[in-house]
Amino acid sequence: MYGLPAAAAPDLAVHRLATTPYAAIVAADHHLASRPVLALGDLADERFVDAPVGFGNRDVLDAALSARGVVRDIRAEVTETNSIPVFVAGGLGIALLPELLIPPSEGIAVVPLNERITWDFNVVTRTSTGAATAALLAQLLAAY
């Protein structure tokens, strides 16, 4: 599986399984938790929890935010994406994650963003594949 743009893998075949928007994750008792939608400007003074630089979802988000002139105060980096909501629920900060990667978690609220920032969930193969790889790829593409 691959979470970077296809241009980052020029010698491979990148097959998009899904495109998902980023959403904000805040603690259930956070002052932004009851909002129906958030603007990036609403997050300006917040502390963030994110994956380390080099993780696909982090790199895509950093590029999108940089293009919009948004700078984040990242207080914690977590190598297991499924653990980010735990840190958020504990009050360490808020997070922006692709909706597809947000596990069901207690103690958080997921709030959509009013600006569409998306992440592509891809599977990568060699440009020429055998029958087994082609069959698996067909099953993955059909499932998504």
Description:
The chain has 144 residues and is α+β, with helices and mostly antiparallel strands. The chain has a single domain (17-119), classed as Periplasmic binding protein-like II (D-Maltodextrin-Binding Protein, domain 2, 3-Layer(aba) Sandwich). It contains 3 helices and 6 strands. Strands 1, 4, 5 and 6 form a 4-stranded antiparallel β-sheet that branches. Strands 2-3 form a two-stranded parallel sheet. Strand 2 (47-50), helix 1 and strand 3 (73-77) form a beta-alpha-beta unit. The radius of gyration is 17 Å and the shape is elongated. The mean pLDDT is 92.
Number of domains: 1
Rg calc = 17 Å
CATH topology: D-Maltodextrin-Binding Protein, domain 2
Order of helices and strands: EEHEHEEEH
Distance between the termini: 13 Å
Helix content: 10-25%
Described by strand count, sense and barrel closure, the largest sheet is: 4 strands, antiparallel
Q: Average pLDDT value?
A: 92
What is the tally of helical segments?
Answer: 3
Which characteristics define this entry?
single chain; 144 residues; alpha+beta; D-Maltodextrin-Binding Protein, domain 2; 4-stranded antiparallel sheet; two-stranded parallel sheet; 3 helices; 22% helix; elongated
Concise overview:
The protein has helices spanning 56-67, 84-89, 131-143, and strands at 12-27, 47-50, 73-77, 95-98, 108-112, 118-126.
Blueprint (SSEs and pairs):
Blueprint (H helix, E strand, L loop, with lengths): L11 E16 L19 E4 L5 H12 L5 E5 L6 H6 L5 E4 L9 E5 L5 E9 L4 H13 L1
Parallel strand pairs: 2-3
Antiparallel strand pairs: 1-4, 1-5, 1-6
